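Support reply, case 0932

Customer input (verbatim):
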Amino acid sequence: MNPRINLFLVAFLSCLLAFSIFADAHDYETLEPENISHCCKALGSPGWTNNLTHVGPYHDAAIELVITTAQNCCQKCVENSDCVEWYFGQNMCRHAVERGLLYKICSFPLLSQLYSSDSGVIRCKDGCYKPHEPHKPHEPHKPHEPRD
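Our regenerated output:
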């Protein structure tokens, strides 16, 4: 065989091997569509608007390294009844929860994210669910019906 073809094949197969190792290491598993809340279906959903009330709580927010997509980060926040808002960037998922601090996360104004990251508010007046609104993590959102 031609040495150039051999070199090309070695380089190509090496790249293919490296990609398969990288993909396996990042575990690109996604949740089934029926297990995703209406808050987190896609960018633009009520809980995935790339807005946050305040960026301060993320300095001490719990980091979820096993979550590898913004959609899963959002969904995990929906499933955690203490999670107020979420942020996903640089392959890290962070959830902000009320920790009895002097300030309340929801008392801050809503800010647009300027960075190349995903985020959303789940449990504030501007979020997908209103604070303390009962819901199941996977149930479709039903608008409040007017009372007679």
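We compared this against your earlier run and they match. Two observations from our side: The first helix runs from residue 3 to 26. The domain at 33-121 is CATH 3.50.4 (Hepatocyte Growth Factor). Please reopen the case if you see a mismatch on your end.
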